[in-house]
Amino acid sequence: MKIATLLLLSVAFVTLRAEERVSIQQLLDAPATYHGHRVVVRGVWDFGFETSLLFDGKNEDKAMWVEVEKQEAEKPKDKNLMLLQQLFHLRRESDATPAINVGLVEVELEGVFYDWPSMPETKAKLKKLKEDECIAGGFGHLSSCQQKIVVGQVRWFRSTVESRKPDPEKRRPN
What pTM value is reported for the model? Predict the structure, then answer.
């Protein structure tokens, strides 16, 4: 009986800790399926001023917002995340979004995935809408993304991805 109980508890613990390895495409194709799940995903993290997006390295239009799980600066849980934050001066006092545009970094992230339309508060708002009304919202700067991942761990990163060349069409006026 004791052995069966221990076996059951160990299986339950492994199940609670399990994460799903998925691609960005899988997450974006079936976001409601993964909503609230801990996932491991590889991609290219584009972060800079008002930008924190994860995409597959090919199609920036298919991207999700990236937030960093709040961690104590003095005792970070994840050394890779701490290195990225120090390397790129990502830490701001009020927000995990970087203050400068640092370019593209290839990463493998572990975190919790969220789909904005699957959030309980969003579902409640959508139920109250009339047929001709619409609701805007999402995650990130200007609520531009319908999905996000809240990163708890950076499993590895490689900053060998070339930064994009500046687009003259997107230049800010002086």
Answer: 0.70
